[in-house]
Amino acid sequence: MKKVVTIAATGLFILLSGCNTTDKQDEEKAQPESASTSDTVVKIEAAIAAPLSLEEALTDADLVAEVKIQEIVGEVEETLPKTIFSAEVTNVLKGKEEQKTIKLFQNGTKEIGFNDNELFSEGDTYVLFLNETSSSSEADYWIQGEETGMYKVSGDTLVKQALPYEALAPLEVQTLKSGSESDVQQVLDKNRFYELITEKGGNK
Question: What's the pTM value of the predicted model, to 2 decimals?
Fold first, then answer.
């Protein structure tokens, strides 16, 4: 039976502004000694800074794209442990990406959870707000705001993983609640979301 250890990373913020994954996004070291034990699952809980508006997030992102997760290609033990995924770019909503396959960071690993976020699974499709990594050669992008910059594709809808946007309320099909305000997930009409991104400065 696996033992679960939860670590509250006081003062650790997932920034929703332009920064790279090693310079600013990781504010404190939170690498526990017990992470190396095979029968222990470590959970890191980090406070989320006040999010950017949708317009600000879109302006700040280097790439907003629909991607299909392919596989795990590695892990890194930096200030915060991260998993590296390869992903197929299926639709670019903002920015330019000539590669059909990119590598991206997601906070957490199989043994070290981050904010109770599930790791991506092979075959899942997401719309992600991404920023280029500037001091790491292991991945091309990190996720802006981590879970706040993730929208999981489910048929004709998108599920915003955390912190709902009031600006997206007109696109809501439903909302899913599991606790506090930050746990509210917006279920959005996918096509209308793509149209809104175009209106607010995305690719035509």
Answer: 0.77
